[in-house]
Specification:
mainly alpha; Rna Polymerase Sigma Factor, Chain: A
Length: 170
């Protein structure tokens, strides 16, 4: 799939395969969960290394979606955790934090905050509702009186913008 700057054109992929992919996922999950898996599928594609050549995008997207659906179903089954296991994991994770890691995380946070502030108002609103208020695409669409497709485009645009800004640090 040709693209500018050796990057995969996510918008073209979404236009060409989005509807079929949504139907495929919706057969296996509820609407809200399907929206999340759809989003995560395109996020995985966005996270591919620069220069990755996507020769057969349809099977690639559907395989990612299938894997994510399975992961989602497994996670739903394994959702019950022991409190002591969680607290041990948190303690272990915080014990390994170095000052350098803290500074790096703070820099990333500052860049991310700036990137979000740069987004157009509606795009920023949709992105924040999805990522920080954990609202489904369908709920956002209903609340803002826009299509689910438009919500997904806003989220994808915001994620791509944030990714570009964060790339400066890597």
């Amino acid at each position: 799939m040709g693209s500018r700057n050796n990057k995969i054109d996510i918008a073209t992929l979404y236009q060409e395969y989005g509807d079929a992919l949504r139907r495929f996922i919706a057969k296996k999950l509820s609407s809200g969960d399907a929206d999340d898996v759809m989003h995560d599928t395109f996020m995985r594609v966005l996270c591919l290394e620069d220069g990755y050549e996507l020769r057969r995008p349809r099977p690639f997207l559907f395989q990612i979606a299938s894997n994510l659906v399975l992961d989602h179903l497994r996670a739903r089954r394994a959702h019950v955790y022991e409190n002591c296991e969680e607290s041990d994991a948190v303690q272990q994770a915080t014990d390994n934090v170095t000052p350098e890691h803290t500074v790096y995380a703070q820099e990333r946070l500052a860049v991310l905050q700036h990137a979000i502030a740069e987004l157009p108002p509606r795009c920023r609103e949709v992105f924040l509702m999805h990522k920080f208020e954990h609202q489904t695409h369908a709920a956002i669409a209903a609340k803002l009186e826009i299509s689910v497709n438009m919500v997904e485009k806003h989220v994808i645009r915001a994620l791509a913008h944030c990714r570009e800004r964060l790339a400066v640090l890597d």
